[in-house]
Amino acid sequence: MITPAFELTQDPDFLTVKIRVPHARASEFDIYFEGEDFKFYAKPYFLRQLTLPGRIVEDGREKASYNTDEGTFTIRLPKENPGQYFEGLDMLTSLLAPKKSRSAKPLVEEMAASAELSEDNEEEFDWEVEQIPYEESTPPLQHPYGFGNLRSGVFQRLQDELSDVIDIKDPDQTPAEERRRKRLAAEAAKFEPDHYLADFFEDEAIKHLLKYKPWWIDAHKKMTALQGESHQEHDCPAFVVFSEEEREQMRKFTNKSYLLDKRSRHHVYLGLIDILLAYCYEICVNEGDKNVESSWNIRKLSATLCWLESFSSIHDVLVSFGRRVLCYPLYRHFGLVTRAFNDTVMILQLGKAAVLKCLLDIHKIFMESDPAYILNDLFITDYCIWIQKVKSKKLAALCESLQKTTLSKSHMGLELEELEAAAVLVQEEEKALKAAGTVSKQQLLCSESETSDSEESSSTSSSETEGSDSDEQESSTSEDGEINSFQGTLQEERTAPLIDCNGLRQGTNTSAMEVGDGKSKVSLQSTTPPGKLVEELEMQIHSAMRLSEQPEGLATAGCISQEQEENPVPEPDRFSEDAAGKGNFLEVSPKPNPFLFLCSTNEDED
């Protein structure tokens, strides 16, 4: 016989069972329901027994239909108590369990042990670790691990695959306390401050990842809105929908019962939080997509899976997860720790249906990873079966305790705040040095610009000066040519007086006298000694020169003779001779109202 695929839904008055039986003979089928039992048969499909979470009744309102295109039976069964909510309709493995095996109690037991091991009889669960006085005892040959610490000796048979699955060596011979010490030492050695600070300052990619919204965020919003309207606290199956593949996974699980004492249940609940935190991180950083690193991320971030850790408090779980996020994966940012924490709270608030959906996804990821399938056998498969039987109030209490737990960077034990403060200080110093360098560079550029402008100005001035000097040289050369011509005439007539002023004392000389305005100079050769020449010149100037004002109509003024006043002639050049060649004019200065020397003809005329 084949167990058919099925699903259950409900409304306030009816329970609906939808059974998929392709290629079945629709004319031959049997349905049985009474109280909490439901059975279905249509050859070759047989749904042996569903144990329902509530009672149904046969009162004439029941109805069944068959869709030939889809090959499905849809059966509507009235509830015995209209308005009652049937909890756990998505927990298919639990529903398929035989009614007699739903209890985890052994067939023969002592009453005291039964009261201690029964989880259903507990009114309130204490999430703090139980204080037990230390007692020396002979340690067991093998230390347990796995779901509820129910396994041991597994890795003795799997030494070849041990290093690819967990980080601890020889877990069977390593007690829980030593595992914890080794884990903390490995995390401290693995922590890289440079990697952490790089993600801390350059967090654009991480900010983008934090914007991703997985399916449980929308489901949580809808559930919160519904609870605000109806003021009810229960699972909302409509918001947590299982796919056909997930339903098939649940049908393949073998139903089990777990006999756990209080301490073991405590470890199981805390391990569940640890596994969900790692799963939430994986979903966030990969934005819901699966890749070859998904299996590694989940098992590496969960100390429960990687180090076979048994936690004693919720705070220890959060600290372990936070440290591992900052030591191992690609993105090492405390914001991802906080995001995973908030997502885990949402999943627990959605109820065990949401938790089961996450566990089924982890189970699938590990099944597709060659070495990680061992973790399904040790943990995940048992969690998928166990969570279907957990009371919702237990998860609600666990979620409430998780929400009250606080986590900060100082709890990590990695000196994160000191690292960040030092990095910020270094960054500010670099900015200050960079700003100072920029100012110095600007000042240097300004100085170079000023120097360049000064050089250009000097070059321009030098060019102008050179041009002026060139002009002056040309002018001086021209003037010197005229003067030299004049001096040649004077030297040829060696008996000619230097200055002749109407019969004043005359003399010959070869000494030089310079007359000029600074731009042009006139050199007169004389053989008279310099001192005597000066005295003679002084005497001749005082006795022979006279100063006349500039007449109107003349461009320049100077000393002229009486004959020239009566017969004016055009203004001469600096050195010129009259028509008779009897006189020479010497222009001392080209400035307005210059002085002119009037020299009459000398003894040659006489």
From TrEMBL:
Residue ranges annotated for the CS domain, each copy included: 1-90
Protein name: Protein SHQ1 homolog
Entries under SUPFAM superfamilies matching the protein: HSP20-like chaperones
Domain of life, source organism: Eukaryota
Family listed: Belongs to the SHQ1 family.
GO molecular function terms noted in the UniProt entry: unfolded protein binding
Keyword Transmembrane: no
Location(s), subcellular: Cytoplasm, Cytosol; Nucleus, Nucleoplasm
UniProt keyword annotation of Cytoplasm present: yes
UniProt-listed GO biological process terms: box H/ACA snoRNP assembly
Any one GO cellular component localisation term in the record: nucleoplasm
Region of interest (Disordered), ranges: 444-530, 549-594
Biased segments, Basic and acidic residues type: 571-580
Compositional bias annotation for Acidic residues: 466-482
InterPro entries reported for this sequence: CS_dom, HSP20-like_chaperone, Shq1, SHQ1-like_CS, Shq1_C
Keywords: Cytoplasm, Nucleus
Pfam families per the UniProt record, alphabetical: SHQ1, SHQ1-like_CS
PANTHER family linked: PROTEIN SHQ1 HOMOLOG (PTHR12967:SF0)
